[in-house]
Write a structure and sequence with these properties.
This protein has three helices and ten strands; from the N terminus they run ββαβββββαβββα. It is mainly beta. Strand 4 and strand 5 form a beta hairpin. The protein is elongated, with a radius of gyration of 19 Å.
């Protein structure tokens, strides 16, 4: 569906995914989570078959690597998570290849504290992301004012929750770790290009 000018949230910018990935992940000793994936765009024909209007897309060039590493210790009802993640992608601005490619590099860190009591639970999360945008191709095409942009974001949240008991068992617990997916980062990239104009 392409990007929409004026989108505020990354999730507002895309209706369906336009890439596919292959990767591996692991969780060692209930402590160390790691992931390495590579994303590449679906062909234009595949996207059209899926109902995607490819007009105005900034497709990935080649493979975009994504990585994540996190340490997740647990202490009784308490759990912590400290992690880092990153994504490196090269894109064709708005599908116009005459000026070359733009590149985006995202590096982030995140942390989480979680208490899973009975019947109360609370989760605190924080994530900081630093994005470097090399937008020389977009600038040459008149799509961006700058050849380089930086975006830094800090997000924090708190989620209190009352857990219900069902025949003596707690209902599903809150997920301990969370992963930033390329779909979100790719959406943010496309939104950022429009927002920065």
């Amino acid at each position: 569906m392409g990007t929409r000018k004026g989108c505020i949230l990354a999730s507002d910018c895309r209706d369906i995914l336009t890439s596919i990935s292959l990767g591996a992940y692991g969780f060692l000793d209930d402590l160390l989570y790691f992931e390495l994936s590579g994303y590449r765009p679906l062909s234009t024909n595949t996207q059209l078959v899926l109902g995607t209007d490819t007009t105005g897309f900034s497709p990935i060039v080649g493979i975009a690597p994504y990585w994540r590493v996190a340490v997740e210790p647990n202490f009784g009802n308490h759990s912590l998570e400290f992690g880092t993640f990153g994504l490196k992608s090269s894109v064709v601005p708005m599908g116009m290849s005459s000026a070359g490619n733009d590149s985006f590099t995202d590096i982030g860190v995140d942390a989480q504290y979680q208490y899973l009591g009975d019947p109360h639970a609370v989760t605190f999360r924080a994530a900081w992301i630093h994005e470097n945008h090399a937008t020389g191709a977009s600038q040459a095409l008149g799509l961006a004012d700058n050849s380089h942009n930086t975006l830094r974001s800090l997000n924090a949240s708190r989620k209190p929750e009352q857990r219900r008991l069902d025949h003596g068992n707690s209902v599903p617990s809150i997920q301990l770790w969370w992963t930033v997916l390329l779909a979100v980062a790719e959406r943010a990239h496309r939104c950022a290009i429009h927002i920065l104009q």
